[in-house]
Amino acid sequence: MKALTIKEPWATLIIEGYKEYEFRSWKTNYRGKILIHAGKSIEKNQAKKFTEYNLEYSCGEIIGEADLVDCIKVTEEFNNKLKKKNSLVYGNNGHVENYAWKLENIKKYDKKIKVNGKLGLWNYEK
Question: Distance between CA 30 and CA 27 in Å, rounded?
Fold first, then answer.
């Protein structure tokens, strides 16, 4: 199954339902089920912004799955729409955000899977 490694706090924000778009500098034509892998590092300066959400972060684990249903070229109009939806999650985070990967049917795993991640979309074999 395809997997995507995402740094914290972003991976947990997706799994907990606060974030429905994952931003990347590159586009993908892949559509379908994708595993959400929390990378081994936490962007602590970003995580501080979400203390009120009372999140529990993971490191080096597959924490859930989602359906990747679209890959949208980010425009100023699109960005403004997302900031209005949730400025804390979709506000300026200092990353290159050329493409928004739309995630639906997000499911949090009760039992996390310890595994090393990789760059890009990668295959996880159980």
Answer: 9
Give the integer Cα–Cα distance in Å for 35 and 14: 11
pTM assigned to the model: 0.92
Half-sphere exposure of 80 (CA within 13 A, CB side): 3
> Using one digit for the tens of pLDDT, what is the confidence trace for 62-81?
999 999 999 999 998 998 99
Going from the N-terminus, what domains does the chain have, and what CATH number goes with each?
A: 2-123 (2.30.130.30)
